[in-house]
Write a structure and sequence with these properties.
This protein is an alpha+beta fold. It has helices spanning 2-34, 169-172, 200-204, and strands at residues 35-39, 53-58, 64-65, 72-74, 84-88, 96-104, 108-112, 115-118, 121-122, 146-150, 155-159, 175-176, 180-190. A hairpin with a 2-residue loop joins β8 (115-118) and β9.
Length: 216
């Protein structure tokens, strides 16, 4: 009887280990190829994305990539203008950035006194927000006057929706297509991270009305 009980316990333990391993592999597969969670730490995408938004990023939409590389095994689609993408920051690939696509490969991009032009035509900028009435001359920096430059065929030009407070392509250039991790898809959690973690204020700051919203 003792031997039988030990055998049963061992069998149950092994089944539990198998279940845990399968769950971990499934989670790793989903995170690698399908969807991954990210959080918004800054206000560069305000008002579209708030500081403290936690979002799900669709990694499959732009193709299946070989794990731990930027090599696309199965291409699905390419980022388009107005997509909000997560990508490896060109200056430091260990960091992930999130911005909106303004122009794609082959497009000419120019900014004149905060007004965006793509291929010499005014860009229909329904998402950009300006909070600083001052216009920076090109001699000061490239925030409000930039280009014209042509986007390389294998790259994208991106900007934050908070136009006056975004460190984006105007300052560091283009995003390579193979550095794109995926497209922002949906907000699964949101609260004000600037408040103390354990506090009634933090609990009261939960933005219930944003949870479940599509990112557009």
């Amino acid at each position: 009887m003792r031997t039988t009980k030990t055998s049963q316990n061992g069998s149950a333990l092994w089944e539990n280990i198998q279940a845990i391993c399968i769950a971990l592999l499934l989670a790793l597969f989903i995170r690698t190829f399908i969807v991954q969670a990210f959080k918004i730490p800054s206000g560069s995408m305000l008002p579209t994305l708030q500081i403290g938004d936690h979002i799900l990023v669709n990694k499959f939409i732009y193709g299946v990539k070989l794990p731990f590389t930027n090599t696309t095994l199965i291409p699905v689609s390419q980022p388009e203008v107005n997509d909000i993408i997560v990508f490896e920051f060109p200056v430091d690939p260990k960091l992930d950035y999130i911005k909106r696509v303004i122009a794609v490969g082959g497009d000419e991009i120019e900014i004149r006194d905060k007004k965006v032009f793509v291929n010499k035509k005014p860009f229909v900028d329904t998402h950009g927000v300006f909070t600083d009435p001052l216009v920076h001359p090109a001699s000061l920096d490239s925030r409000d006057n930039f280009g014209p430059v042509t986007v390389p065929t294998d790259s994208l030009f991106v900007m934050g929706d908070n136009r006056d407070n975004s460190f984006d392509g105007r300052f560091w250039g283009f995003v390579k297509l193979d550095a794109v991790r995926g497209e922002a898809w949906r907000i699964y959690w949101s609260w004000d991270v600037r408040l103390p973690l354990v506090s009634m204020e933090r609990l009261q700051s939960i933005r219930w009305n944003r949870i479940g919203d599509a990112v557009q």
